[in-house]
What does this fold into?
Amino acid sequence: MNENPKLTIRISVEGEIYPVAYEIDAGVEAFISFLKFFRDCREVSSRYKPVVLPHNNGHQRIRTEDILYLESDGSYCTIYFCSGKSIFVAVAMGTLTDDLCEQGIVRCHKRYAVNIHAVDYVGGNYLVLRDGKQLDMGGTFKDKIVSCFNYRGTRSLKYR
It folds into this structure.
């Protein structure tokens, strides 16, 4: 009989853009200390914090999974949503993409950032979104965009 039985613990959060899963093999004491740590943890990953942006005379909470793409206009930004609506915010594109990169918003051009989950087609220097909108893709951002996808099939990678 094994004196130190091991537990396999799997904790997952469903319903998020990127499901999180933690898996450890540990003894009972380690499991108890893990639960205490998890309970006492006060910080929430930025992936799960709501995004609140200044809009008009207040602040508006947005759901990042509803974002289609962002368009820069100097130190301002227009956010386009899947529903067809858009909002104009007084936040620079660089600030937004830094804050939203964990949630799938990736810069694809000096003027555009895109929700990687809304991209249906990646061309040589452009992207096609699920609503049919075509966005330019800058050469400096191409490697970052390409790395966001898992390529399958027999076609040579030299065509990417």
About this structure: The chain has two domains: 7-40, 51-146. The two ends are 55 Å apart (CA to CA).
